[in-house]
Design a protein that fits this description.
Layout: H1 28-36, E1 66-72, E2 75-80, E3 83-87, E4 121-123, H2 134-143, E5 147-151, H3 154-161, E6 166-170, E7 175-179, E8 182-187, E9 207-212, E10 215-219, H4 229-238, E11 243-247, H5 254-257, H6 264-274, E12 278-282, H7 296-307, E13 315-317, E14 323-325
């Protein structure tokens, strides 16, 4: 399997990427313990849990506004400055290396694929199947031929699968001009990546800070919390954040998920650390990746905000098809 080949750095040893302030992924033994231990308590999700919302976005959003439409899980359409940007687009029915098994959708995408405006740019945060979906990227390439921006090594995965995907790979701390006065920074996040058994951390993972006319938007697609330093560093480096998009789901059991996925209590801490004016919660309610109930993240977010004495309206758990404008 061809993988990234580049110079060593403070987070790449020549073969694997690593986070100097993070934690390695769990071992196969720990995966088996979680999946097959006798004490596992996995909540049963409803077969279908439709969202009450559906969006038909405009062709463009100009001026100083940003329009954010939640597609579901970690997928977003962000429209600003005349530019249409998709984040971690997944329209497939499963997030898995095979079509007949693996986590399945429990609700439709908040935007029907046929209702998408022309997509100019796609941001892909890392290689896990619930974030890097080759089938969707190929559909986008065929329909819109967008520019795809991703961390180092994920370009190899995309090109190997479909040479028509116009992908560009960048390192942590790179700033990429997207056009229309919009730019994106790739920033470190506490996570890891793989597509199979033998390519763990052979590609990089990242969060994004978008520069927009309405201010900076911090998009965290997957992250553990740790001691919060990743979020504080974004605040230190990028200053005032207008909005943070933070994951609140896929967190149980904590002994297994703590280092790679935040729970709502962690996400509230992350909001305080990064200092964003407002937050939107995602990465919940569409694919059952872990053991908590489908509605547990939204309920726990309400409790965590109350405990931190933060107004509920400052951090909203989104549902597919919901739209926020700033």
């Amino acid at each position: 399997m061809k993988t990234y080949d580049g110079p060593a750095s403070d987070h790449f040893n020549g073969l694997h990427f690593f986070d100097p302030d993070g934690a390695p992924p769990k071992s196969l033994r720990e995966v088996l313990r979680w999946q097959f231990s006798g004490g596992r308590e996995r909540a049963k999700w409803p077969v279908w849990a439709p969202s009450p919302h559906a969006d038909i976005p405009p062709e463009r959003v100009d001026g100083g506004k940003v329009r954010l439409s939640f597609v579901g899980h970690a997928s977003w359409l962000i429209q600003t400055g005349g530019l249409n940007v998709l984040v971690d687009p997944v329209w497939s029915s499963r997030v898995s290396p095979v079509r007949f098994a693996g986590p399945k959708r429990h609700n439709d995408p908040g935007i029907a694929f046929e209702k998408l405006p022309k997509v100019d740019v796609v941001l892909v945060s890392h290689g896990h199947y619930d974030h890097l979906d080759i089938a969707t990227l190929s559909r986008l390439a065929k329909n819109f031929a967008p520019r795809v921006v991703t961390p180092l090594g994920n370009d190899v995965t995309m090109r190997r699968a479909d040479s028509t995907i116009k992908v560009e790979a960048f390192d942590w701390h790179d700033r990429v001009e997207l056009g229309g006065g919009i730019a994106v920074h790739l920033v470190p996040t506490r996570h890891w990546t793989a597509r199979g058994m033998f390519d763990r951390n052979k590609a990089l993972w990242a969060s994004f800070v978008l520069e927009t006319p309405a201010g900076k938007i911090y998009v965290v697609c997957d992250s553990g919390y740790g001691d919060g330093r990743h979020f504080r560093r974004v605040a230190e480096k990028h200053g005032k954040l207008r909005l943070a998009i933070l994951p609140i789901g896929a967190y149980e059991p904590r002994w297994f998920m703590r280092d790679q996925h935040m729970n709502p209590e962690d996400a509230v801490k992350a909001l305080a650390d990064c200092g964003a004016e407002q937050a939107l919660g995602h990465h919940h309610g569409t694919f059952q990746l872990t053991d908590e109930a489908i509605d547990a993240p939204a309920k726990a977010l309400v409790e965590a905000l109350d405990a931190a004495k933060i107004p509920q309206e400052r951090f909203i758990a989104m549902k597919p098809g919901q739209v926020v404008e700033i």
